[in-house]
Here is the input.
Amino acid sequence: MIPGIGAFTQDTLWCFSQVKGTMETGTTEADIISTVEFNHTGELLATGDKGGRVVIFQREQESKNQVHRRGEYNVYSTFQSHEPEFDYLKSLEIEEKINKIRWLPQQNAAYFLLSTNDKTVKLWKVSERDKRPEGYNLKDEEGRLRDPATITTLRVPVLRPMDLMVEATPRRVFANAHTYHINSISVNSDYETYMSADDLRINLWNFEITNQSFNIVDIKPANMEELTEVITAAEFHPHHCNTFVYSSSKGTIRLCDMRASALCDRHTKFFEEPEDPSNRSFFSEIISSISDVKFSHSGRYIMTRDYLTVKVWDLNMENRPIETYQVHDYLRSKLCSLYENDCIFDKFECVWNGSDSVIMTGSYNNFFRMFDRNTKRDVTLEASRENSKPRAILKPRKVCVGGKRRKDEISVDSLDFSKKILHTAWHPSENIIAVAATNNLYIFQDKVN
Amino acid sequence: MECALDAQSLISISLRKIHSSRTQRGGIKLHKNLLVSYVLRNARQLYLSERYAELYRRQQQQQQQQPPHHQHQHLAYAAPGMPASAADFGPLQLGGGGDAEAREPVARHQLHQLHQLHQLHLQQQLHQHQHPAPRGCAAAAAGAPAGGAGALSELPGCAALQPPHGAPHRGQPLEPLQPGPAPLPPPAPTALCPRDPRASAACSAPSAPPGAAPQAATAASPPASPAPASSPGFYRGAYPAPSDFGVHCSSQTTVLDLDTHVVTTVENGYLHQDCCASAHCPCCGQGAPGPGLASAAGCKRKYYPGQEEEDDDDEDAGDLGAEPPGGVPFAPCKRARFEDFCPDSSPDASNISNLISIFGSGFSGLVSRQPDSSEQPPPLNGQLCAKQALASLGAWTRAIVAF
Here is the structure.
């Protein structure tokens, strides 16, 4: 079976691989995972949490004698990326929660990633050190300075192997550029620039320059009382460094070309689906707000996630999506309760698989859904400790909407809305997925036949 | 997991969310509050349209029992869920003599109050275009002498509160306002703006600074400044029981401060102490402490030509302008400000404007209290609550301070 390519056939079964995180039921809020991201090779998997920490897992080399087990992910590095801050001028506390992590393509032995909280983006360098110099002239073994008068000989320090140490250092801090809360960052395909988007503005940065950024989108109205929509997500095109898209709270997507003008307030393309008037309700505006937008790997399509659906759009057709998938339409009648308990504001993400043939997104009750775009089949799986035996095959789950509940089905009213899967990631080339369930990170792989 | 999907509970839930977002970590989340404001707008529209429908039905029943004096009276109401836009309430009729005919008082009074609530925000929007100076009362007084629906159409809120008689009342002692048919909208439920060319002219100059009132508006209505002294008298007599908050002043909302349990009344975005209880009601007794001052205090975010910057850090520089001489040191609320209130304008603009009409100027306080504004803890007394205004109209039991 070719990994990652057309792999969602009837033979594809997903198996539990690993789970990271504590098993205790009482979780501290700081441990809640807020973002998950594979790097470009899939060798590293980074997670950010509400406490401002970043944990990077590295896939171990596959060993020949355990051919049935693909490489596992083990902790590679942990560091505190952001700390809580206080803006004294505005009397505001700035949360340390990591909103997004984006990897840079690897260009040397070190790894680079961007991590951001509500206000500040940081570029981190993660590098290994497995040798250390020994034999200093001016320092002794413990590092204390020696009295130069006692030195009678000179020697050249040599590098000796040491235990592997992974260190993370902040190389750049991009601060003070956002008035509103940053919701997205995206690395440009030129690998020299990246953008950060908040509710009303998008800024373009150069990696080398931290004290300046270009504002490329500004939708703030002159009079804030006329505000009708905000930016919810933004991403660069995977191949065209001049093109990016951003989504809005009104369910629209705008594609902008930076060659057209310096300030891309006027879009090049505008993607909007006409609203179905029969579905109108109090909460129509909320559920149409797009929570995530992702380019396909090919760059031909974009996928958007709103509260109840995932939509795939062709860049060449602006008036409607080419595919719409219902994630949990049974919640449509529950919107009022979900509004009361704030669940309606949950921002689910969505991901493509490596070949753009399958899309995945999360739901409640620790369910996550996959949709095969070719076969039009979908599956609901659950990330739970009960299915946590090694290589245990995940059983498809089903939510029962009608009155009669079958044996393995779960009724809508039994769903646990505190267990939500907002963040998932798919390995760039293989069928390995990482699913963040509150404070636990589940890694699933497809069954190797 | 059922919840009461009715407008009332939704409004209260939404207000509670906005209120609690003030204290949430990380600052006010613009996106979430924007979405909540949409729910508020939808719920409010439904609520108002339902009320109007109900009162209209009651009105119809009574009409059938009495010889119809005003056959052309027709209350158009939007279908539930549809926006109860200005299209439903056109310029008001002063009506002729037959208005004094006794009708079912309660229904008409309620209708009058409801209508007044709706006119409140219409009026606010229009006033924004016209003058920064005396709103509400004085402007109403100014409009009154013109008689006729034309001039009054620009000041629908105030017009609603005028006695049914068309004669100018400036300086005259007035009978308590009978819940007459005057405030009822005219037969043809057309949009306010198109119906009155002068008002539409006002609408069509959206970005004109308030100081530069659109010519049409200026020409149309007598300047608002004259006879402010007469307007209080006009107003004082014009209204029934002072305890009736909602009716007291045309652009008035009443606030219950949950923190201090102080009941205050906001008039024209300018916060007073409970003016109904006080003998020296600023809006009624003293001709407003200087209309100019009131406007300055009430207008937190004035448009000064050439100063429409998006300088976030300086946005609130002018916030705490002149403090209202009400004696209580608090930051004046922002005046609601509307650019396009024309039905043919983007419906989106009316979303927030509807919300602002709920909160008076409070919502602008919300969106401006984003991290970009120089932050002040929201003043205790500067809080507006539509619930209290609605409370006078229905069986509300909860008053929730928005923020």
Notes: Chain A touches chain B through 43 residues (CB under 8 Å). The first helix of chain A runs from residue 284 to 288. The first strand of chain A starts at residue 14 and ends at 20. The mean pLDDT of chain A is 92.
